[in-house]
Design a protein that fits this description.
- With 192 residues, the protein is of the alpha+beta class.
- The protein has a domain of 123 residues.
- Helices cover 39% and strands 32% of the residues.
- It is built from one helix and eight strands; from the N terminus they run E-E-H-E-E-E-E-E-E.
- The strands form three sheets. A three-stranded antiparallel β-sheet has the order 3-8-5.
- Strand 6 and strand 7 form a beta hairpin.
């Protein structure tokens, strides 16, 4: 109804407008609650990923520390051998891969854990060694796949006649689908 430029709203129209406004407010509150739930889920996922990355970083640091300690032990053993007697002769450099090479070609597979030992020739003792790993050329992962594989052990064999290496992949989801191999290197000699 319109009276000289003034509009009046009937109680029925007012009630309909109030109900429409109330429904819109309820819909907005539901949308806000859904967004808050999604934000909370994302924060939880981010915290889990951060924790996994920190755990992987800690494991990598432990592996680095273990390799450093093994190298220091090998260096100390070499110095002790040099100081103890006339020295060594007939040195050789040997290596071994896991999986083993076939027809003098590298072989790669996608197992998560690989261990290998480079053995000295009979009668020779290990005086040093090291480790490396290689990702297959046709890996389906990204170029950073080699960073998802961590060195767990690199040390002289307990009998002193080889070098032991062990690698494994980071736990999911930080692992790699790529194929790769582990390599152990040993420097051996006749120790006098």
């Amino acid at each position: 109804m319109l009276l000289a430029g003034i509009s009046f709203v009937t109680p029925k129209e007012s009630l309909a407008q109030d109900q429409n406004l109330f429904a819109r407010v309820q819909a907005l509150e539901a949308a806000v609650a859904t967004l808050q739930s999604q934000v909370a889920a994302l924060q939880t996922a981010l915290a889990a990923e951060t924790a996994a990355r920190q755990a992987a970083d800690a494991a990598l640091q432990n592996a680095i520390n273990a390799e450093t300690a093994a190298r220091q032990a090998a260096d100390a053993a070499l110095e002790a051998a040099i100081d103890a007697g006339p020295g060594f002769s007939g040195w050789e450099f040997v290596f071994a891969t896991e999986p083993p090479r076939v027809n003098n070609q590298n072989v790669f597979d996608s197992r998560d854990d690989k261990g290998v030992e480079a053995r000295c020739s009979p009668g020779k003792m290990v005086i040093g060694g090291g480790a490396s790993q290689g990702v297959g050329l046709f890996a389906f992962g990204d170029p950073g796949d080699h960073q998802r594989i961590r060195l767990v052990d690199s040390r002289p064999a307990f009998d002193g006649r080889g070098w032991v290496v062990r690698y494994n992949e980071n736990p999911p989801p930080l692992d790699t689908p790529a194929t790769w191999h582990a390599v152990a290197y040993a420097i051996c000699a006749d120790v006098q």
